[in-house]
Amino acid sequence: MLSILIPTYNHNVYQLVKNLYKQLVECRINFEILTYDDGSNSKENIENLKINGLKNCLFKELPNNLGRSSIRNLLAADANYENLLFIDAGTFPKNDDFIKHYISKAHLNVLSGGMTHLKKKPKKPYKLRWLYTKKRESLALCSSNFFIKKNILNTFSFDESLKNYGYEDVLFFNTLSKNNIRIYRINNPVIHNADDDANTFIKKTELSIKNLIYLIEKDKIETDLTKIYFNLKKLKLNKLIIEIFKISRPLLFLNFNSSYPSIMLFDFYRLGYFCLLKTKE
Predict the structure, then answer these.
(1) How does pLDDT run across 110-155, given as a tens digit for each residue?
(2) Taking CA atoms, which of 33, 160, 162, 268 is between 20 and 30 Å from 219?
(3) Which residues sit opposite 185 in a β-bridge?
(4) Residue 184 DSSP one-character state
(5) How many whole angstroms separate alpha carbon 266 and alpha carbon 128?
(6) Going by DSSP bridges, is the β-strand pair 190-192/57-61 parallel, antiparallel, or unpaired?
(7) 89: which residues sit within 8 A by CB, 6+ positions away?
(8) How far is CA 25 from the centre of its chain?
């Protein structure tokens, strides 16, 4: 009845799979859990191989890195059931009835359970990632925790031209919406473990902005960030933003690595970096 699909890269997901497995057994349904490592060659996979000892569960190490879109499409293609539930590594179900809640809504085509933050605030330099989950990701659709019918994903698959980190989920959900497929938001979150320090998170953010620019060039997406940029460009203020960004960048990194990181400053960093890359074109 239900295929749980977990793409991972350099993560220990054994405890996540054990939790999901326990919930699935209690629900007494037909299920499988497929976990694919996207070519990380990580030492964490020694622990992940224990997944193969659980009934109806499979852990597979892919020989090459496919990318965040392609690995999701591959998991969906390999799934044996019509109901697909995608869960990201680095997350954990908040509630013990997480699976039961999804099953009760399985008559719907697409469900987004959402993401939430750890209750306990992490110390610097991990607080920025935690704060971003709390202030931004908890309000957005994301591919870290969603349910979808297999035939819909096969029709509107993740864009495999995207090989790097970022915006593949935004593009995917936008595509569904443009094709009049309703996405139901339900309160069934996973908890993000906030394991990226500030510098790592900034690097991922920069990669995602490069992906965003690629999508803009291909006329595939538009976001609030792009709208702000083009408005600034019309007013000829984009170069001023770049200069402020360049001057303040070291100070911004100090803030991001502190005990009191600012999401507003992080939003400015994203805008400044976007303006910098776009103006270089």
Answers:
(1) 999 999 999 999 999 999 999 999 998 888 888 899 999 999 999 9
(2) 268
(3) 112
(4) E
(5) 9
(6) unpaired
(7) 6, 7, 8, 9, 11, 13, 16
(8) 27
